[in-house]
Amino acid sequence: MSEISDPLPPSWLEELKALLGPGGHLESDADRAPFETDFRALHHGHTPLVALPDSTARVAEFVRWCAAHRVAIVPQGGNTSYCGGATPRANGREIVLSLRRLDRIHSVDPDGDALTADAGCVLARLQEAAAATGRLLPMSLGSEGSCTLGGIISTNAGGTAVLRYGMMRSLVLGLEVVLPDGRVLDQLTGLAKDNTGYDVKQLFIGAEGTLGIVTAACIRLHPQPASTVTAFAAVPTPAAAIALLARLRRAAGNAVSTFELLPRVALELVLRHIPGTRDPCGGTHPWYLLIELGLNEPAPEAALRFESTLAAALEAGEITDVAIATSGAQREALWRLREEIPLAQRREGAGLKHDVAVAVQRLPEFISEGSALVAGLAPGARLVAYGHLGDGSLHFNLTAAENDDGASLLAAGDEIRHAVHDLVARYRGSISAEHGIGQLKVAELERYEDPVALALMRDIKRVIDPLGIMNPGKVLA
Ligand code: 2HG
Ligand code: ZN
After folding, report:
1. Closest residue to atom 8 of ligand 1, CA basis
2. 213-222 pLDDT tens trace
3. Overall pTM > 0.85
4. Is any ligand 1 atom within 6 A of the Cβ of residue 174?
5. Which ligand is the nearest neighbour of the Cα of 396?
6. What fold does the segment set 349-435 form as a domain?
7. b/e for 152-180, b at 16 or more Cβ within 10 A?
8. What is the CATH number of domain 105-223?
9. Which atom of ligand 1 is nearest to the CA of 341?
10. Does the Cβ of 338 fall within 6 Å of ligand 1?
11. Which residue owns the Cα nearest ligand 1 atom 5?
């Protein structure tokens, strides 16, 4: 860790503590520690104190003070970033601003299909609040028990229902944002239609806290489907999986909400490391899919129609085996086979992650070219390429060979990453499909982003945050 060059004067910290009020900060080493390291333990920084304001007005006051003193701010929600986007750097001059005390649900409006809440609300709580009124908040991801509304907006989170409902951006109806000079942008209107000039709130979605601090949001809700059907299917190839997706869409339109691909090795890792899991299909197959549809017809009809579509897919050779959930418990068991892959991969040992996207139709070609590429660069390593096939987004991850401590895989990490990302660039894909840039991929963004887009990003950053106090070193160098 680099040294603390020039600590903030103690009198400044006293001023800040007074400004933040009772319960408004954390200061001891033990209290700060969880805020100074990211969830993957890849990044370690230092903050002199963690600010915990309890209102938007207090956030604004805090930001005004930071702007006046040129002190940098690192906004943090549930601290579940995969790219170190919410971890301070090691210079000791950046103050972590946790939004966790901003946790009020303002309103849930089932008729207007909107929910308004503070940035610090945990996603699972918002999903429950929506469900209690018969509505669906369709953002769904592994960290939903700890990630926060402000965090998933600031990172434009994806998850496992993007195919039907889009990424977080498509769920945002309104935002409240504290700007880097302390002004408050109040666009908590919840309007579905508003064509009054530039839609400035869009700038803050996916900006990873580099342009301002999201303090509250109005989110679009959806009707809850009358019934849900869930299946785990074995497929011979990714191309067959894509043919199946087209078949399901012909039969059920946009009811397909989840279409997740996983290779045999991913299933094996889950079966090995996650107690209570079991393989629902007979035999071994190279690829599997977790499929879910939310339908408007009652359960018996929905199940019959789904089964007949899958029977036709079996006949066409698109799938080779399938297990359909017939109870809530079975559905959960099938979901665990997909959701626990990241944990199982972690438990298996050292690995590399690549969060990439290419056009859905080109994914099979990308997977075979990419497999050959990494086999050459990391002989023996296991490719665990899984993810959101329906969105063209894959976690093109590697795990070291069995009984290998992974040292050589990690040592070759940069070379492998560049090779994978070069391939992605040739496919005109994305080097960060859903996890963002944070501090991990700043150089990658510079290397692969369209120069015109990059120049515009820098212009926007300069205009909105001329002092450069908002989450410095993230997204842009
Ligand atoms: C998922 O899809 C997450 O499960 C995590 O985006 C992916 O751990 C990963 O590489
Ligand atoms: Zn993912």
Report:
1. 342
2. 999 999 999 9
3. yes
4. no
5. 1
6. Alpha-Beta Plaits (3.30.70)
7. bbbbbbbbbbbbbbbbbeebbbbbbbbbb
8. 3.30.465.10
9. 4
10. no
11. 342
